[in-house]
Every structure is written in C-alpha cells, then in structure tokens.
Amino acid sequence: MQASANTGSMPATTYVSIGQIKPLGAALELPKSSGGCDTLDDESKATCGTSAGPDDMPLEIWDKVKNHPCYSEEAHHHYARMHVAVAPACNIQCNYCNRKYDCSNESRPGVVSQKLTPEQAVRKVVAVASEIPQMTVLGVAGPGDSLANPKKTFDTFRMLQEQAPDIKLCMSTNGLALPELVDEICQYNIDHVTITINMVDPAIGEKIYPWIFWNHKRITGYEASRILHEQQMKGLEMLTARGVLTKINSVLIPGINDEHLIEVNREVKKRGAFLHNIMPLISEAEHGTVFGLTGQRGPSASELKAVQDACMGGANLMRHCRQCRADAVGLLGEDRSEEFTMDKLEQMEVVYDLGKRKTYQDKVEVERQAQHAAKQEALAASSALMAGDDLQVLVAVATKGGGRVNEHFGHVTEFQVFQVSAAEALFVGHRRVDQYCQGGEGDDEQLPSVVRAINDCHAVLVAKIGACPKDDLTAAGIEAVDQYVGEFIEKAALGWFNDYRSRIASGAVVHQNRGDAQIRQGAFTGLAEAA
Ligand code: CLF
Ligand code: SF4
C-alpha cells in the first residue's frame, strides 16, 4: 500500500473554503435525469429521495423506498436495516480503509466483528427479522466489497429470498466489478445498489486509491483510478437502464475531493443516480489507515454541510447516513448486533411469521404517516405566521426513535440535527457524543465534548435534562428545551422556532450566529464498507 494521499504526481486539488463554494444549481445547467426519482429536476425538491412522499414519485419507486431506512429520511425514524458480513475480500485499496482493524466499539468502513458464511448469514437475518419486525432491508456491505465476493453475496440473497420474501435486498460496492455483474444483480431482484464514488477525475482518484486488482494484476497510479472510474460510470448507467435504484456514496476528504464532489454530484445525476450521500472522512491515526497515518483530517460539521448544500439542485441528497458497520443491526444510529452473535443465535428459537411482521409494520406505517401529517400541519402554520422571514437555525434533538423527542439529555449517544426556518424542518445530520450520564450521574467532563458536537445549534430539544447541564448549555449559547417531550420532532422544532422568533421580535433575546461543530471520529457501535 502506498501513501499516495498527499504525494500524487498529478496536479494537486486546490482546497476551497466553505465561503467560496457556489450552489450547484445556480452555477450549472443541469441535464435532465434519465431515471430514478421524477422530482430530480425541481430544485425545491432536491432532497426528494430522502423526505418525499407518494405524491412526489411514481408508485413503483415509492414502493421501493417507503420503508427503506437509507433511501427515505422519513423511513429511517421507523424502519431498521441489517448487514451481514459475508464479503471479506476487496479488489481495490482505499486510503481510508483498514479491514484488519476489528473492534466492536468502532464505526467506520470495513469494520466488522464476525464474518459469516451465506448459510449463517441467512439464519441470522431470519432470526433478526423475527425479533425486530420493523427490520425491512438486508444489505451486504462488506467488510470488503460485495462484488469482489460474488458467490457469497449472491448465495446469501438467493437463499434469503426463498426464506424471507418480504425483506428488501440491498448491496454496496466500489463498482470495479459492477458492469459484469449487473445482470446477476437484476436476476436476484436486488432493487437497491450503492456505489461508492469519490471522484470522476482519475487525477484526484490517484490520491484516494493506491491500487486496484484488475484482470489478475495489481494496477497502481493514474491508470488504476481511470479503470475504476470507467467501471463505476458504466455500472451506474447499466443499473439506471434496468430500473435499479442506485445511491452514490462519496467520502468527503478535505483538500482532495471537497470541491470536486460537486462535479461528482452532477455526473451521477446525469447518469440517473437516485440519491447522493456525502459522508465525512473518518481518519483517526489509531485506525491504521493511510489517511489516518498521514494526518489527513476529516471535515468539520459546517464543511460537510457546505458541500452538501452546494450540491442542492443536483442529484437528491441523503444526509442521514450513519456510516454503518458491515454487521450493523437495527435502526440507523443504533447497533443491536451484539444481541445476535452466532452463539446467541444458536440458543434462539426462531419463528418467521410473515403475518406478524406485516401487522407490526402496518402500525409503524400509521405512526410514520402521523409524523408526516404533523410536520405538514406545523409547516403550514409557521409559513402563514412568518411569511418572508428568512431566519434559519439548527436545532439538535434527543430521540431514541419513532421520530419523536423522547430521549433524556444524559442518555444521548447521537443527536439528530434539523435545519429549521419558517418554511422547513429538514434533517441535516447527526452528531455522535459520549453519553453524559454515566451510572446514573452526570459526568461534567463529558459536557464540553457534547457542546462541541452541537455547537452550531441554537437549541437542543430533550425529553428531560438536569439543572447543571442546562445551565452549562445556556452559558454556551444553546437553549435546552424540555417542553416538547413526546412530540414529533419537526412539529417540536417548528414550535420552538416560532417561539424563538417571537422572542427576538419582542426584544427578549438577541439572535446571534453560532460557530462550527466537530464531527466525532471514533468510538461508536454501529458501522461498514462505505455502504
Ligand atoms: Fe446497508 Fe447501504 Fe443498503 Fe443502507 S447502509 S447497504 S443502503 S441497507 Fe445506509 Fe448505513 Fe449509510 Fe449505508 S446508513 S452506511 S447509506
Ligand atoms: Fe475495499 Fe470498501 Fe475498504 Fe475501499 S472501503 S478498500 S472498497 S472494503
């Protein structure tokens, strides 16, 4: 493996500061999409893939995304996914990956605890689906590349389809082997494919990929990235032509591909990508990756958001990715994989009851629609109240699922962040934190790291919070709000925003801009291949 991240022979990418990044829609004439979501051409619906409803897309597409937690932002509050780690080998090397590292307290591409055979994997999926009826999607996302292990990947899908036909099939790949396997993907009814595309220019690719394994040979340098790029574009076009919903994941690597991701967004939209998920680089030195060892940093929260915002108007954006492990189980943002180790599975009595799963999911759907209706109602009220008001702030939310404000501040390991204005309450990301409350007591040493994680937010909505952390948050300029307990998140966020707006109007508070926030790099149970 060579450290080509910062030493490539091709011209270096100029680092562009956030302020210099121009919105894509304003700067470019965008071509009409050739597939996927019907709303791709409407800038106002640029996040359609993540938050749109049945009125925004053809019924057959809505059917594919409505309960897929990655393809629908709304669905991710209610439905779960799981990954099975059946694909250990990889055919390329990324400078942000080290698959040898295995720690169940870690969360980043390639990390996994137990590798499974297809038979073990299917047993595990059926067991999880019996215990977690809202688990609707099985993904193969590593710990290597799903298509560098085609037999194991497709055997798993084939067997699962026979035993649990209601589970949606999903996979992620770096795309190198994709064109040759598209027909097989279609044969197994895999409706959702993610391709990790970090560049559309091999000169930039050279700084990310030291080598690929191609036609029985290791190829390095510019040529390696050229081949990878061509295969990725060809594979994407083939999937689009066959009606497979394709999501593109890109890792934002400051100074290497930050500005370039706007170009990536444009190119993948042109080829019919349904969603574009721009994720932060995770690169701590202790991970042992090339980027970790060369000191390549990840982006801050506002650097990530600036690139995502600059892509609005292009391919639809996904912002709720949790960079899951290759063996993750549960809602995005939680990891229940420890409950389903092979030892435990052997003791479990598994009854796969399709009817029971359906009944449960019908209840989940009622709750999800109630959340959607509450949001629309709150938006209509706030738009009428504050027409023409362009104030926009970020709000952090403590939730344990169901789309509601229902978690105590001290128990949070991940805040959800919403961008709120009179006209929207939009999920824009999450922030991992160490739990403030340890053993029943608040740990004051944790508080500064929590503040750093949500430092760009004006308020944090919680189910409950103690007087001490509340005072400390207030001193840091963040309002801790516990009056919306149990309320749907968007309704609560808009409720607080309307109140905040009226306090500004009355002179009770003076609005001030917030600073940047830190994206937590390590120690999280939950992650995978850049799925
Ligand atoms: Fe897994 Fe990926 Fe399918 Fe989702 S994850 S294979 S599309 S079922 Fe989802 Fe996890 Fe982000 Fe992937 S949150 S890393 S985007
Ligand atoms: Fe392979 Fe995925 Fe790791 Fe890249 S991140 S080297 S594609 S396993």
From TrEMBL:
Protein name from the UniProt record: FeMo cofactor biosynthesis protein NifB
Gene that encodes it: nifB
Source organism of the structure: Polaromonas hydrogenivorans
Function: Involved in the biosynthesis of the iron-molybdenum cofactor (FeMo-co or M-cluster) found in the dinitrogenase enzyme of the nitrogenase complex in nitrogen-fixing microorganisms. NifB catalyzes the crucial step of radical SAM-dependent carbide insertion that occurs concomitant with the insertion of a 9th sulfur and the rearrangement/coupling of two [4Fe-4S] clusters into a [8Fe-9S-C] cluster, the precursor to the M-cluster.
Transmembrane parts of this sequence: none
PANTHER family in the record: FEMO COFACTOR BIOSYNTHESIS PROTEIN NIFB, FEMO COFACTOR BIOSYNTHESIS PROTEIN NIFB-RELATED
Keywords: 4Fe-4S, Iron, Iron-sulfur, Lyase, Metal-binding, Nitrogen fixation, S-adenosyl-L-methionine
PROSITE patterns per UniProt: MOAA_NIFB_PQQE, RADICAL_SAM
Required cofactor(s): [4Fe-4S] cluster
Pfam families named among the record's database cross-references: Nitro_FeMo-Co, Radical_SAM
Taxonomy, superkingdom: Bacteria
InterPro entries: Aldolase_TIM, Di-Nase_FeMo-co_biosynth, DiNase_FeMo-co_biosyn_sf, MoaA_NifB_PqqE_Fe-S-bd_CS, Nase_CF_NifB, NifB_C, rSAM, rSAM_sf
Molecular function terms, GO-annotated: 4 iron, 4 sulfur cluster binding; lyase activity; metal ion binding
Stretches assigned to the Radical SAM core domain: 76-327
Pathway where this protein functions: Cofactor biosynthesis; Fe-Mo cofactor biosynthesis
Entry's family note: Belongs to the radical SAM superfamily. NifB family.
